[in-house]
Amino acid sequence: xxxxxIDEATSFELVSPHELHEALGMTSGQxxxxxxxxxxxxxxxxxxxxxxxxRRVINLKALPGLRGIREQGNxxxxxxxxxxAEVEGDERLQARLxxxxxxxxxxxxxxxxxxxxxxxxxxxxxxxxYYRGGWDCYRAGGNLCHALLGVHxxxxxxxxxxxxxxxxxxxxxxxxxxxxxxTVQKGGGVETLPATELFVAPQIDVRHMxxxxxxxxxxxxxxxxxxxxxxxxxxxxxxxTWDFALASAAVxxxxxxxxxxxxxxxxxxxxxxxxxxxxxLEVALEGRRLDEKLISAAAxxxxxxxxxxxxxxxxxxxxxxxxxxxxxxxxx
Length: 332
Known about the structure:
The chain is α+β, with helices and mostly antiparallel strands.
């Protein structure tokens, strides 16, 4: 097991490329031995505890074109190196994509939001204390989820088997709800995929939280701005700042003048290994008038299909509360 008292990284080479193609080439022949540094809020912690001991750290901060928020027609594109504080404070995002700016504003503390980046928040590693603590769990290559039989108050109630970790990203459910796409630069070219496909369920690959591997860089996120769309993001934590979500909910929908809801997406964070989209609830809401009766019924059904563990059954009521809050905000 790891020594939790460690507070100093092992020696590594720090390099700062000036072009993206240069950064991609720096991982050649370094399989598993090179890591990319963006904001550093997650990676530096991993290095200091020697949870990761790379030979080379590739600093992406000087790369051009990976930071900033651009409006192009009916889309908003956010560079992967854009800080969470910039996303939170952008007036265009506040007006057009409020779920995204609200999600960014609920991450940790102002200090971390000033350092943390969009890409880093999306690509965080599991925060499960068993995995981070050096236990021989499924995600670390073992044959057991220690949370299943141990302390699991913050673990998954949806889609958990065989690993019951939860996605730590606040931006992830908001971007999936907003039908965003991510752009990834690889040695072989550029790939664009729906945000929902960025994340990997443990049933598919228990060793990874996302689909990016060595030599691949997330460069931007593009979000469509749909006429008449409303969106929101709500989150419950033990404390109002710093903490990761015990549960969160992002909702985006087009609301007609008569209150009828269309193109609705409901996505949870903090309750599943990936952003958990509730398709059945979306179907139940589609084409109906969003009034208090519908909101109450939707909230009651919001956790249908959940399979909580003995220690995290409270999340069922929490999801219902958050969906009620989010839909009420959407209808206001």
